[in-house]
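G., before I forget:
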Amino acid sequence: MIELDKHLIKKPENNHRVQRPTQTGFSSPATHYSEPRIDLNEVLVSNSSSTFFIRVIDNSFKENNVLSNDVLIVDKSLSPKIGQLVVATVDDSFKIIKIDSASNTELNIWGVITYIIKPVL
Amino acid sequence: MIALVDCNSFYASCEQVFRPDLINKPVVVLSNNDGCIIAANKQAKALADIPMFQPVFKIKKLLDDNNVSYFSSNYTLYSDMSRRVMDTLMMFSPRVEEYSIDESFVDLSSMHNANYDTIAHTIKNTVEKNTGIPVGVGIAKTKSLSKLANKYAKKIAANNNVYVVDTEQKRQYLLKNLKVKDIWGIGKKHAIRLQDKNVNTALDFANMPVAWVRKEMTVIGERLWRELNNVPCLELETVTNAKKGIGTAKSFGFKLTEFSLIEEACSFYVAEVADLLRQQQSLASQIEISLETNQHSAIDKQYRNKIILNLDTPTDSTIKLTKVALKGLQQIFKPGYRYKKVGVNLVHLVHKNEVQTNLFYNPHKSESDAITKLMDNLNGKYGKNKIKLATVGNRSKEWALIKEHRSPRFTTQWGELLTIGG
């Protein structure tokens, strides 16, 4: 299952240098338009110093549409709003909880789930 | 004003972030070489009969009987968590000095007329929320005072891990409530001599005549004395521009006198910076090696030196860089000193594709390039430092390690992520 994710999630590249093959004929009309390729981190990880990844290992949270082998992206810097999913510590272990108006204010929130990466193959 | 932000029981706290079952429980972290306890959290320290620096096999039963959780050092995790804390501090100021893995000085001089109490609490709460690592914050006009403020913040529970020296009254109060031996940079020997002269509190020291301090404790003692009297003498040492050079200069954690051990540490750091160099597709033309004793210690003999060595041709080969670095280290190493840190700095970097060729530069891949590439591939596949040069040594567990009680590298390896389930 870990193998699968290696293909789904590419490690971030440290530099955005655009590779230019040696060109022998006419110069490319696109030369001045090249840009770094889309980087998922730009969108999925807005605050990298407070963002953590957690792997779901069974289907105990399926009522929130979180299934085994999903990877949660969790931002600890956020404060949850109603309707959002959080990772909280309950009885010494991590649980996924949906915040609603009835949620306990004493809830020990570890972080707010911002994205869920789902393998679909 | 300068803030000193210090993580509480940093190694144990890193482990606890990912283990909610260990919150408020005793946790110790072991060294990798001989299995001694090198770090313990508050709850573990409270168990008075757990001795620090004891081989763990001797006290295993004691640990188990007291429900103490123990971990092998997971420096990969600690280093990433440390960077997260550092990055969070950068939100408050662009000038942050990473003093050690769990302590940073933050320059707050850009905040004028600020309420420093509010700032201190905001820094503390933000770091704790964003990273899960609890910290203490001391704020004062000088580095030495902020260090003392931090110490005092932790000492008295009512301070809530925060102490701000923004008035003369608070400075006096702080110094009066700390002993001479608590002062950052005053060694045991000087502390005893001062006590003999009836200088007991930090305030007594700050009120000594400066001439006496200079005569008896050299310029280092005088600098300290001035700092405690609100005159900044120690500059913030922020990281050099990463584009011009890649470097690392870390304290050993304990003083080293043996050349062979310093050589190992140096080789390890060269491998580390060379790896960064290759990641950014650069070659280094020069390497700078520095070696220094603890400049803040008033008892140790002081020595620091630096050497810059040219490489025949710009290179990113760990093998070539290590060879040259160790040659340089040999030249600046003097026996008989207790060294605190070695620095490795790669300078005059050029991009791989922009190297100027010369008569002797062979653009074809050399043998050592191929070896370096192979090492990188193997290390990438099987984990950091699986393959290394012999100079890094097998005793280099101080600098890198893997052990049976090590927690997963939650934040750097896809295969070792934190897991959640029913």
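Chain A touches chain B through 34 residues (CB under 8 Å). Chain A has a mean pLDDT of 84.

More on Monday.
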